[in-house]
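Bug report

Summary: structure tokens for AAA family ATPase differ between web form and batch submission.
Environment: batch mode, default settings.
Steps: 1) Submit the sequence below via batch. 2) Compare with the web form result.

Sequence submitted:
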Amino acid sequence: MKVQTKRPEQIQVTIHPQQEKRSKEAGSWVMQPEHYPLRKAEKSLDKLIGMKKIKSFVRQIYAFVYVNQCRKELSLPVSEQNLHMLFIGNPGTGKTTVARILAQMFQEMNVLPKGHLIEAERADLVGEYIGQTAQKTRDLIKKAAGGILFIDEAYSLSRGGEKDFGREAVDTLVKAMEDHKHQFILILAGYPEEMQRFLRLNPGLPSRFPHRFHFDDFSPAELLEIFLRQADELGYVCTPTLKKTIKEHLEELNEQERRSHNGRYVRNLMERMLRMQALRLLEENTLDDESLMTFTHVDFEKSTLS
Ligand SMILES: Nc1ncnc2c1ncn2[C@@H]1O[C@H](COP(=O)(O)OP(=O)(O)OP(=O)(O)O)[C@@H](O)[C@H]1O
Ligand SMILES: [Mg+2]
């Protein structure tokens, strides 16, 4: 479908016959050239394990923003585009990764002029004396202008009670969300229980964040899949028996440990294995193709020694 504006007061909508036929197939609209930003984001999301709900949510947000842009072009009333979000999930569940994908998608849709991601935490917003917090927070918002301001462990902003300067940071953020509505997108991230408490403590906040993403913990099988995909992307393979050993290792991790690291556990394991394999190859003086590409039990065992 193409929306053409001949004269400001005259609007013509043309539907090409093939497009009409194609659009009857559910989801086929995504293939139309103008939806390239969504396809690109979905391609990046497809590289991630799980996240089914998040993938469908990203499509909804894309559709909402796109349709609003079409309405605006035709001077139809547009619902206020509040794109501030809450990302709720344990460490290593992909919150930062998804925020980066969204930032890029919004930039390509011209929702954000720059599409960069500024990651911040309490210490970047909260000062040590009166007046410093508001200034620090405003400086950070300035840095994030045109992109996404992502505040990790956002609940820590209200941990100190009434007298804590964190409250000043929250107030400054809320004010900036009103004053600079379309200049940046604010994402507050944090662990589930703490975020619920944080939102209860700040009654003005929940309604300002209409979009909520929940990031689930990964099962041992999903962690193994993440490991294998990362290895594949980097051009490494594991022998079948090594795969089995890593799987058992991930299953043996205690629940607490698994949930407090998730994907980051695998990322760290991968980085240690890369170093151990490199060291082994130099010690063995074997630098042939196959050796360069292969992780062995020795690499894994040395990587898991504490
Ligand atoms: N669904 C996923 N599929 C594949 N890899 C993932 C997935 N989620 C996270 N990862 C990987 O796990 C690591 C941590 O991800 P990320 O930094 O996005 O997590 P996070 O939720 O922001 O963590 P934190 O709360 O500690 O900041 C990265 O290496 C990322 O590539
Ligand atoms: Mg993160």
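Above is the batch result. After comparison, the two runs are identical; trailing whitespace caused the diff. Confidence is low (pLDDT under 50) at residues 1-15. The pocket of adenosine-5'-triphosphate (ligand 1) is lined by residues 48-51, 89, 91-97, 152, 226, 263-264, 267 (CB under 6 Å).
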